[in-house]
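Appendix B. One record, verbatim.
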Amino acid sequence: MDGPFLILGVGNLLRSDDGVGIHAVRELARHPIAGVEMVDAGTDFLSALPFLETARRVLILDAVQGRGAPGSMYQLAQADIVPRPDGSPAHTTSVLEARRLLSPDAAWPEITVLGVEPLLLDYGLELSSPVARALPRLVAMARKIISSWQNRPSPNAILQVAS
């Protein structure tokens, strides 16, 4: 894939900490990163499909229940993402399930998830205190991950040797 890197913010802004991925992608968009598309997908995963089809690598920002203290951060590779045992859809797994709608020939980008342990998932527009405190760390970590991707040569890159 030759497209840009993609940061995909997912979640529901109406359910407190569930919207942390949206808050983070909006904060990142205030100071855009060259070569990176930033998409506020919310809970509309189908609208994200065209971006997923053209991206080389995707960083999904989301609330992640990992049984840590509220505000804990997690970094997961696509292989580490498993559906919840209760069968309820998590945003990240819903994005991965949406790929079934892509054409069978479509290549799938490498996906990394950066998540924050939520405290509150009730209706509300504000992040809880521990998640609000974690938001700057989430944004900084997203920038660090993207920077590492940008500084890593593509496996298909032609290396030039100085003579």
